[in-house]
């Protein structure tokens, strides 16, 4: 008995343990006693990514789960995510400056690694925070020395210069000494800023840090930074705020922007078509916050992102490495850039060859690159300043127009050539040449510091400066001597990327519909009405096709009907593939397709069909095995099956993959980058006070005043109540299950008893009919709410059998 009781209790404990174990997971990063959470947050995010991948694998392994959950993720999306997940290790190593084995990564020769840039930004912000403490110490020493000696600074200089103390000018010197005492903290702050080459127009007050990124990154980084400075001294404290720059940063915090506010924003990778609008909104928020000025000063904004383009109003831009293959949209845009650059080179070579001096040098054996370099350095600026380009102003416009049309695959008519010749004003020509050379038009008002800042901006964005030559614009280091273009993207702003992808999508749509570029019309009401009519015709056509395939006319398609009809539409597909499409599209799992299911199948793109028919590797549990993508660029296999190289519909199929990359991979990299920067910032401030006080002052930045060693929230309900409630819920679940079993058994018993009574009545009726020798009609069943009467025949009214029942089935 004791053994059986022990076994029963053991089973009950095992059940309770299973209930709790199913809701607990671990990040496997060990004990993290520091209250500012960084490693544990990154590990939790990574664990949730792995859990998400496992859930998607389970759902994709069974089409019934896909239909029930409405999942839109595909196996190809998981392959891309897993590849980015594995490459993310190298990306995080470059950010933190330590590899997976714990070895420190050394900076490059130029010190331009991501870690070095983050540390430098943290040092600058630490100096912003420490300037008040340093100014206080400098003021203390000045007052202590001058009062002890009895000679303020200006008075001492005046006496050293021979000015007698009885002179009336000596009182003026003492007046200025008094002014120095009064404004001494501000003077010391200005001295520190001059020495450290920091902004002089910032306010001389406590700093406020505003963190802008997607919600989880902004909130986690805010908690990390605020906890680092929780125990700092008030003279070196700061206020921390967070917001989403794509949502409410402008409305909640831009009215609080003052001179010296520190703003750090994470930028999504706008080089991806699905994220270009998101980065554009973030950049707009940063520009709006940075454009709020007072006496020429504004906030100090720092952006962290992957797109290597610095915002003009930001103080610093930290770029994270790609550490992943390119997506299809990046590949297509890079190829388009190469074609345009080749067309521009051909244009300039043609113009250079028409110059007599260059023609003689070309005969002497100079190649095309040297010809263009020499021609551009000798003739370009002088001719542009005169308002003409080598005396070939009209012909240049014609050649440029022809080359542009040839690069887009079109032809040039006579009228178009004439129109190209007519646009020959000096301003238009100069803007065109500036565009070709990569120069921005000069502003006569931009002098001095603004011109130097623009020069630094252009050099950072890989654009030539005002003093650069044609070689700086087009011929970079390491380029092959034959003039081939490098397959790389230009450094574009988020707005430029958004416009480039819109143009590519329009071009792809025109190529798919075989619409010439000359017949392209702007958006109008008539065009929208025409599009709506075409959509209506498409819907009617699909309906007619559905009715033609539906042989039996029951408004549904059986498997045999679908296979026969769809094989005529796509004769390249085998019967096995068509049956697989039918099974995947059968949302109701009733063995047939309705019109909505058939419409979804008809509207599927070739990319979606290939993804659906792709063979899947499964393990012994039936789960598909997803391997990381091994493509040179994401979408390489998709592009091989397309008719055109610039089919933008294939890039739309990667939008979900790009969004997964942003939410699971890129956002984690930005969070880690912020923690590296903030840790450096807090470390510098923490080490300052023990150093200047010989160890008497100091604090620990890994602790807060709450001394909360475990990052959990206290439960408002006691553990005993929770335990009793769990037991009560467990017992209630068992009781409900028992009641359900009893109810089902009772209903089955009633139904079986009812059938037995009906069989007895029928047997009695048949025996009565045999005894009477008549063949009356079958008995009529009269159903009442509380009574059932069975009347054999009108001739035998005395033989009536009455039974009370609630329901009856004949």
What does this protein structure show overall?
With 810 residues, the protein is mainly alpha-helical. The protein is built from 29 helices and ten strands. It has a five-stranded parallel beta sheet, sandwiched between helices. Strands 8-9-10 form a three-stranded antiparallel beta sheet, with no helix packed on it. A two-stranded antiparallel ribbon has the order 6-7. Helix 2 packs antiparallel against helix 28, helix 9 (215-228) runs parallel beside helix 28 (655-692) and helix 11 packs antiparallel against helix 20 (494-512). The longest helix has 54 residues, at 719-772. The radius of gyration is 40 Å and the shape is extended.
Compact overview of the structure:
By secondary structure, the protein is mainly α.
Helix percent band? 55-70%
Supply Rg: 40 Å
Measured distance between first and last alpha carbons: 54 Å
Strands, total number: 10
Q: Which regions contain 5 or more consecutive residues with pLDDT less than 50? A: 1-10, 16-20, 379-487, 780-810
Q: What is the number of helical segments per DSSP (H or I, 4+ residues)?
A: 29
The major beta sheet can be summarized as: 5 strands, parallel
Strand order of the largest sheet: 2-1-3-4-5
Question: Which percent band covers the strand fraction?
Answer: 5-15%
Overall average pLDDT: 75
Specify the structural class. Answer: mainly alpha
**Envelope shape:** extended
């Amino acid at each position: 008995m004791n053994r059986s009781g022990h076994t029963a209790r053991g089973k009950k404990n095992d059940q309770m343990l299973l209930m709790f174990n199913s809701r607990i997971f671990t990040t496997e990063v060990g004990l993290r006693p520091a209250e500012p959470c960084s490693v544990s947050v990154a590990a939790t995010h990574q664990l949730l990514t792995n859990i998400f991948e496992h859930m998607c694998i389970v759902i994709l392994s069974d089409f019934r789960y896909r239909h029930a959950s409405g999942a839109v993720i595909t196996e190809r999306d998981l392959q891309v995510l897993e590849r980015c997940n594995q490459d993310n290790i190298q990306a995080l190593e470059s950010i933190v400056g330590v590899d997976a084995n714990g070895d420190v990564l050394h900076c490059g020769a130029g010190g331009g690694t991501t870690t070095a840039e983050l540390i430098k930004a943290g040092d600058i912000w630490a100096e912003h925070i420490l300037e008040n403490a340093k100014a206080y110490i400098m003021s203390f020493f000045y007052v202590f020395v001058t009062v002890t000696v009895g000679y303020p600074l200006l008075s001492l200089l005046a006496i050293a210069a021979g000015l007698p103390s009885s002179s009336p000018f000596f009182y003026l010197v003492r007046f200025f000494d008094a002014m120095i005492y009064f404004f001494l903290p501000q003077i010391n702050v200005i001295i520190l800023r001059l020495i450290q080459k920091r902004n002089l127009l910032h306010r001389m007050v406590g700093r406020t840090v505003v963190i802008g990124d997607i919600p989880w990154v902004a909130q986690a980084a805010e908690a990390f930074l605020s906890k680092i400075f929780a125990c700092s001294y008030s003279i070196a404290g700061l206020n921390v705020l967070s917001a989403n720059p794509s949502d409410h940063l402008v409305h909640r915090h831009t009215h609080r922007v003052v001179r010296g506010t520190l703003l750090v924003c994470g930028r999504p990778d706008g080089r991806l078509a699905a994220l270009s609008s998101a980065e554009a909104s973030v950049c707009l928020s940063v520009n709006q916050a940075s454009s709020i000025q007072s006496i020429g000063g504004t906030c100090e904004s720092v952006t962290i992102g992957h797109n290597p383009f610095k915002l003009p109003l930001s103080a610093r831009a930290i770029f994270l490495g790609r550490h992943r293959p390119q997506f299809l949209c990046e590949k297509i845009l890079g190829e388009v850039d190469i074609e345009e650059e080749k067309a521009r080179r051909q244009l300039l070579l043609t113009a250079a060859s028409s110059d007599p001096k260059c023609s003689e040098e070309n005969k002497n054996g100079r190649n095309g690159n040297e010809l263009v370099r020499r021609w551009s350095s000798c003739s370009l600026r002088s001719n542009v300043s005169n308002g003409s380009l080598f005396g070939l102003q009209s012909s240049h416009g014609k050649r440029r127009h022809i080359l542009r049309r040839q690069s887009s695959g079109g032809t040039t008519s006579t009228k178009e050539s004439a129109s190209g010749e007519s646009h020959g004003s000096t301003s238009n020509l100069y803007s065109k040449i500036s565009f070709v050379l990569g120069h921005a038009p000069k502003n006569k008002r931009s002098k001095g510091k603004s011109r130097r800042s623009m020069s630094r901006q252009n050099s950072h964005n890989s654009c030539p400066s005002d003093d650069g030559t044609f070689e700086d614009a087009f011929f970079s280091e390491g380029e092959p001597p034959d003039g081939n273009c490098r397959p790389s993207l230009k450094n574009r702003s988020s707005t430029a990327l958004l416009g480039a992808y819109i143009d590519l999508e329009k071009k792809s749509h025109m190529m798919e519909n075989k619409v010439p570029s000359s017949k392209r019309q702007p958006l109008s009401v008539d065009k929208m009405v025409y599009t709506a009519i075409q959509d209506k015709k498409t819907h009617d056509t699909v309906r007619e096709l559905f009715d033609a395939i539906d042989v039996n006319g029951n408004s549904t398609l059986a498997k045999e009907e679908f296979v026969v009809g769809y094989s005529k539409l796509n004769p390249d597909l085998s019967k096995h593939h068509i049956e697989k499409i039918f099974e995947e599209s059968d949302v109701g799992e009733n063995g047939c397709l309705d019109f909505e299911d058939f419409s979804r199948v008809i509207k599927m793109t070739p990319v979606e069909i290939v993804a659906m028919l792709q063979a899947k590797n499964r393990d012994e549990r039936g789960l598909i095995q997803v391997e990381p993508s091994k493509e040179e660029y994401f979408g390489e296999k998709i592009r091989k099956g397309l008719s055109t190289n610039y089919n933008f519909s294939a890039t739309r199929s990667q939008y979900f993959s790009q969004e997964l990359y942003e939410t699971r991979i890129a956002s984690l990299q930005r969070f880690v980058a912020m923690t590296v920067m903030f840790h450096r910032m807090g470390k510098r401030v923490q080490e300052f006070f023990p150093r200047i006080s010989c160890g008497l002052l100091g604090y620990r930045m890994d602790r807060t005043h709450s001394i909360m060693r475990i990052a959990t929230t206290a439960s408002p309900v006691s553990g005993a109540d929770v335990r009793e409630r769990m037991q009560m819920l467990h017992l209630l679940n068992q009781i409900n299950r028992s009641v359900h079993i009893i109810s089902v058994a009772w209903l089955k018993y009633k139904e079986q008893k009812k059938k037995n009574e009906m069989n007895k009545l029928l047997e009695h009726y048949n025996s009565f009919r045999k005894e009477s020798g008549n063949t009356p009609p079958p008995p009529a069943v009269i159903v009442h709410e509380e009574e059932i009467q069975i009347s054999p025949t009108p001739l035998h009214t005395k033989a009536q059998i009455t039974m009370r029942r609630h329901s009856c089935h004949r």
